[in-house]
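Input record (one chain):
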Amino acid sequence: MTAKPPRAVLLDAAPAGQDRYGRNHPLAIPRVSLTVDLIRAFGALKAEEYRVPGAAHREELAAFHDRDYLAALERAQAAGRASAGERERHHPAGCGMRYGPGWTAS
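The corresponding structure, as predicted from the sequence alone:
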């Protein structure tokens, strides 16, 4: 008899206090980390119900972000900073999106 898969899985993008989002990113709200802390403290999840996802691939990011914006982030990552024009047009890191090394899985 095979084991039943978990009914639900919690994906925690910022485990153990890691900050994966800048302070203005929509997912950088304290209630997310506090909720995860409470769930774990009360033992409400089994080990197989808790997962830490890897970095998103470019195509996965493109489902939520404009391709021009992603290209601007790639240029900022390569240069180590965003140009004034790209900051004006796309606001890389202005909304909290990180563009340093490893922001995407390619």
